[in-house]
Amino acid sequence: MGESKTFAMFLLHVAVLWCFLFYLILLSLSPTQPNYTIVSFHISTHPNHVNTTTSRVNHGGHNVRLSFALEIQNPNQQYGVHHTNTLLKFYYGEYTLGEITIHRFHQKRGRTSQKLIHHVRAHARTKLLKTMSNSTVELKVSLVTRIRYELWGWMINHRQITLQGHLPIGLDGKISGKKEIKLYHREI
After folding, report:
1. R_g (Cα) of the chain, nearest Å
2. Helix, strand, coil % (nearest 5) of the chain?
3. Structural domain of residue 4, as residue ranges?
4. Which superkingdom does the taxonomy of this entry point to (predicted)?
5. Tens-digit pLDDT profile for residues 90-116
6. Does residue 12 sit in the same domain as residue 105?
7. How far apart, in whole angstroms, are the C-alpha atoms of residue 96 and residue 126?
8. Would you say 98 and 43 are in contact if contact means Cβ atoms under 8 Å apart?
9. For residue 64, what are the β-bridge partners?
10. CA distance 122 to 91
C-alpha cells in the first residue's frame, strides 16, 4: 500500500513538472505583432449629383470618397490572432476626413495575410480640395485595435495596438512615392 502512494506521488510530481515546463515554454515563445500596411489609397471627387446607392458626403459641390486596401500580415507561424474591432481614422491637419470600424475577425496561423478593402465617407474640407488641386497633400492615418493570440486553442497575451502612418497623396488622389505605407507604433 505504501508503494502505491509513493508511485501516485511520483506521477503527481511528474505531471506538475510537465505543466510547469509547458508554462515556461509558453511564456518563452514571444509572439510578434501583426504588420499593418496600406497597399492602396485613393481619394475620388465627383461633381454633386443625386445618388442614393453610395454613401458620399456633399461639400462645396463635390462628393468625396476615400477608398483604401489594408493588408494585415501575421508573421507568427505558431499563433493565430484574434482582432477585435479595429478603428481607422484619416486626418488632414486637424480635420478628421473619415473613419471606419473593421469588425472583429480571426486570422489563422496558416494564413499570413488578409486584405480588407473599404470605402470611407470623407468629411471633405474645402482646404483639402483646394490643396489637392494644386499640389501633393499629406494625410495621416491612425489605427487602434486590441489583439489576442491563440496557441493550441488557448487565448493568451492580450495587446493594445496603436499605430499611425503618413500618406503622401498626389494630384491624382493616389499615394505618391512609395506605393505601400507601413503603419508604425505611436507613443501614447
Report:
1. 24
2. 20, 50, 30
3. 1-30
4. Eukaryota
5. 888 888 888 888 888 888 876 657 677
6. no
7. 13
8. no
9. 45, 57
10. 10
Residues contacting residue 40 through CB under 8 Å, at least 6 positions apart: 67, 68, 69, 174, 175, 179
- In tens, the pLDDT along 67-86 reads 888 888 888 888 889 989 99
Counting Cα atoms < 13 Å in the Cβ hemisphere of 73 gives 8
Contact 66, 22 (CB under 8 A): no
| 83/20 same-domain check | no
Helix, strand, or coil (residue 150)? strand
Handedness of CA 153, 155, 157, 163 (dihedral sign): positive
Bridge partners of residue 73, in order along the sequence: 35, 113
Number of domains in the chain: 2
* Cβ–Cβ under 8 Å, residues 107 and 74: yes
Whole-number Å distance between alpha carbons of 114 and 73: 7
The number of residues in the chain equals 188
Show the cell assigned to 142: 491612425
Of the candidates 66, 78, 69, the one whose C-alpha atom is nearest the C-alpha of residue 36 is 69
